[in-house]
């Protein structure tokens, strides 16, 4: 791997890290979408946000036969804390629907809670 390849790979890793560290739980993806727009606005021919809040972008190719579709989620699994007991146990409600089908997915996971005033890490 040459120096330019390594620099390009590092750029991709840094960009991916920056984008995935933005908080964007279901229904609150605005910051993620804005960051993606900043990344793509100078390289796509057009972009827009549809009525569902999805970001769509077009980068025209040489011909229609070589069209490629890229698709990705901008949201992440999220919760709303509904109650915290005197002993510090948190009860929460899911945002989105993924975990209703796969509840074991978060078992023993480290997660965090935040709002505009605080940030707390805890274990499920």
Automatic annotation (TrEMBL):
<keyword id="KW-0479">Metal-binding</keyword>
<dbReference type="GO" id="GO:0016787">
    <property type="term" value="F:hydrolase activity"/>
</dbReference>
<dbReference type="InterPro" id="IPR008007">
    <property type="entry name" value="Peptidase_M42"/>
</dbReference>
<dbReference type="GO" id="GO:0046872">
    <property type="term" value="F:metal ion binding"/>
</dbReference>
<dbReference type="Pfam" id="PF05343">
    <property type="entry name" value="Peptidase_M42"/>
</dbReference>
<keyword id="KW-0378">Hydrolase</keyword>
<protein>
    <recommendedName>
        <fullName>Peptidase M42 family protein</fullName>
    </recommendedName>
</protein>
<dbReference type="InterPro" id="IPR051464">
    <property type="entry name" value="Peptidase_M42_aminopept"/>
</dbReference>
């Amino acid at each position: 791997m040459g120096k330019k390849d390594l620099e390009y790979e590092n750029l991709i890793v840094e960009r991916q890290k920056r984008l995935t560290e933005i908080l964007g739980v279901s229904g609150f993806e605005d910051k993620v979408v804005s960051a993606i727009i900043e990344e793509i606005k100078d390289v796509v021919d057009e972009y827009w946000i549809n009525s569902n809040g999805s970001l769509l972008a077009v980068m025209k190719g040489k011909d229609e036969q070589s069209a490629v579709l890229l698709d990705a989620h901008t949201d992440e699994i999220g919760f709303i804390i509904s109650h915290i007991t005197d002993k510090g146990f948190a009860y929460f409600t899911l945002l989105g629907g993924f975990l209703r089908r796969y509840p074991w997915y978060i078992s023993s996971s480290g997660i965090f809670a935040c709002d505009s005033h605080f940030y707390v890490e805890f274990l499920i």
